[in-house]
Fold this protein.
Amino acid sequence: MTEHPTDPARPAPKKLFIKTYGCQMNVYDSDRMADVLAPHGFRTTDDVDDADMVILNTCHIREKAAEKVFSDLGRIRPLKTERPGRGLMIAVAGCVGQAEGAAIIKRAPFVDIVLGPQTYHRLPELVARAARGEGGVLDTDFPAEPKFDFLPPPTAQGPTAFLSIQEGCDKFCTFCVVPYTRGAEYSRPAADLLQEARGLVADGVREITLLGQNVNAYHGVSPDKDATWGLAQLTRALADIPDLMRIRYTTSHPRDMDDALMEAHRDVPQLMPFLHLPVQSGSDRILEEMNRGHTIAAYYKTIERLRGYRPDLALSSDFIVGFPGETDEDFAATMKLVEEVGFVQAFSFKYSPRPGTPAAAMKKQVPEDVKDARLQILQKELTRQWRAFNQACVGKTLDVLLTGPGRDPGQLVGRSPYLQAVHVQGDHSLIGQVRPLAIAAALTNSLLAAPDGPR
Ligand code: 5AD
Ligand code: SF4
């Protein structure tokens, strides 16, 4: 398999197709993998049939997400066998790679490379090894060297960007694989983050979303290296970058919403009034079984305080129904919380037992049909709430960051402060600007603004 040159001196461009599953961290990682491979002659393509290399950047959080990888591999396989002259390199990256490792190569021997989320900076070397004919190259280390030190600075792809500031998790919620697949918590030094953010803004980025599995557990070394900064301090420093108009962060944990961060929501206008704060369940008993480390009363208190500082704060959450031992009363408590708090967006899931996690071995697993019924009830209410929120925006003027062309000619798409997609007729020169737009209608998945006025 010499058809995969990794020598930058040899120009022959190779086409790289990356499929991303799961969370925003994976979206970020996929972009970085493309960045790492670019100097080695790989250009990204949206057409899998045209690819010389396919990376599946996988998610292990629920069983369905993991199984999807194997069915996709089955679909990709013929591309490799049916055009032997050209060859196709297949890599499985991300959390399924980490969790399943060599078992992937056993089950799908046509896979060339398996790697975890902490080693993608080594991709060029792994590709070179696979190209030399070393079949089934595996790298699921948790290396001592942080991968970020080996990655090229990220490049802007429009007015919004992700910036990974923290990774991994030490919380060990009993349902979750993340502490096993992403490893221990690690916070990047603040100086590196400020430098990357300045670079992104210089390239035209106006909104940065700070990413981390536990983003508000951030505790990076300060620029002068004599202190540790939390997320609040980092946010305040980022807000000093001229032209950075918006800052968001995700995903946060209720346990880590400290005073300083809540106060940043009061003081930093760039911090957008939208917060994804997963609560998972409305029952204290279930939260305890989940090892979430907070109570419902504490969640309410946090929200009350945040809304005191920022009355227009819109909330989003994750929910799990059918966690082992969840009774009708526990589920009713979740519904009560949803009705009382009100969420403008939410992700809700049936509990999915993950091998090796404590909850998978708990007695009193909830039958599938009960999970189905609860999920349906919950999703109905959550859908009602986000529709009502979108409807309530009609007639209001929202500041919209115009991020790119819309689907129709002459149309632009943008983002409201509350992370709603907004469509508007307007000129391309507006991309990258924040405009106050009058919301005329709420469509299924977006808002429609009246045409942007004369300027
Ligand atoms: N089953 C169902 N949902 C899960 N999540 C994490 N692990 C599981 C699991 N085993 C959900 C949580 C988390 C989101 C990213 O995925 O709600 O916040
Ligand atoms: Fe998983 Fe809990 Fe860590 Fe979130 S806080 S990544 S749910 S273990």
Q: What stands out?
A: The chain has three domains: 14-139, 147-392, 397-449. Residues 402 and 414 are 4 Å apart (CA to CA).
